[in-house]
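Bug #77: duplicate submission created two jobs. Keeping one. Sequence:
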Amino acid sequence: MRRPMVCLQGLGAWKGDTMIIRPQPGPQERFLACGADIAIFGGAAGGSKTFSLLMEAYRNIHVGEYSGVIFRKTLADAKKAGSIWDTSFQIYPTAGGEAKLGSLSWQFPSGATIGFSHMQYEKNVYDWQGAQIPFIGWDELTHFSKDVFFYLLSRNRSTCGVRPYIRATCNPDPDSWVKGFLQWWIDADSGFPIPSRAGVLRWMLRDGDEILWYDTEEDSRKANMERFGEDLPGKSVTFIPALLSDNQILMKKDPNYRGNLNALGHVERARLRDGNWNVRREAGSYFRRIWLPIIDELPKTIRTIRYWDRAATEAEPGDQGPDWTAGVRMSITDQGGYIIEDCERFRLSPGKVRLGIRAVASQDGRNVMQVLEEDPGQAGKSDTDALKEFLEGFPVDVRRVTKDKATRAIPMSAAAEHGKVSVLRGGWNREYISELVGFDELPHDDQVDASSGAFNYLNENKPPRIRSL
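Kept job's structure:
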């Protein structure tokens, strides 16, 4: 009995007892046919970047000594549902791959291996000293530093007969070194890739921190001889952009995905839907006053929580410096909107912070979940465990912070821009809204952190929507 068709973002067909997986026509096909030493694929969400990277990695699995490694920024990024490791199960079993869960790798009948690893910290590069990696893949290259990329380039070597090469995927990031690296392929004024340059090869030499570019292999060879006395060409590089419209399989299987991109805030929409490399968030662009209407009556809600962003520093008289402990109470309505009902904040010693949170929990009542944000590390866990015990009798949940403040604020910012967030009138409104509008400009952002935490928690634990009859 044949295995079911598992190829979701490449074209697959059975030929006898063998499944043939091939790329979709267009950018995916060009990426997989590319002969460059370094090829970067992407520019927008939904262009089948991750699937393409997985397909490229197993091109040489028939070679017994071949090995490839695909990097994500963190191990959690590599392993989460829908991630590159998860997606690899759609392809590699069809080639006889055996998953090694302990090492997060695949082994193939020839002996070839493809592993998945992370580069969370700069020092992780030294874990690869002495390594020989014929194939290196970077999933979301903009998440890695320039130094990490070029150090691993020195590990891209081979004795198995496979010419060493690098493939990478990325979404637009105007502040990443990758934008400068790809500047020849991107229009400086519009921020969009230049169609006539997509897939065109250029040759690169690196002299210290300076990257030198040449239009032909021969020019790079001459420059290498003149500068370094080496009769070798530079590394060939290209960029192949792709959009959601290039991934016809995904558009057919999930036609609502474009709607998800349309629902993003204006900055993320320009980057992830349109593939624009110039658009960036300016200070004050996360929240605007017009996006935060004040209402006088609370509509019908189906869930309410209060999310705490805690500080443990007690303010001295006249001191404006310490952070605040902020607790934002937020509800989700039966129509899918979000209401910011209240914000409590105070600057107290750790012991008094606990008393303050318990007092607020008593006011909220036992139907309101108190969500505590936990700092990374054992100290953060111990502190949170002690507070949970102190709040015995009240519903409590814990969330660990894994992303930076700006990234955590983006989902709520997008929802506010689309008119899905309102503020219940109260004496706390003025300072609260001023902090949101001044996010990235003001010295304190505790209310923003508590708000984005509350929004993300409600969105992740959203109850079924009630439909009106």
